[in-house]
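anyone seen this seq b4? input:
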Amino acid sequence: MKPVISTLVLTLALGTVSAPAFAGEVCMPAQELKASLVDWYGEEPVPNQKDGNVQVWASEMTGTWSAVKTLSDGTACVTAQGTNWMAGLETQHTIIASLD
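predicted toks r here
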């Protein structure tokens, strides 16, 4: 009986820790979303990105970044976000390329 309880507790604990990673996308009208990124986080589009429906926004001031997917209906969704943005690093160019 003890192994069953231990397994259940471990499963619940891991499920609680990993739950935020599976949160849904945040979507709203594109202009509203982009204005929110500027106002709330000080983020702006990262320069020199390939044209596509996913664009990375970042703030050197706050260190935050967001990947924004723009849909054909005028809606935009934040598909990924993070902290510790450091402009100019080679690894970020790899991240941007992998989002396309």
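The mean pLDDT is 74. Strands lie at 26-29, 44-45, 54-58, 65-70, 75-82. kinda curious what u guys think
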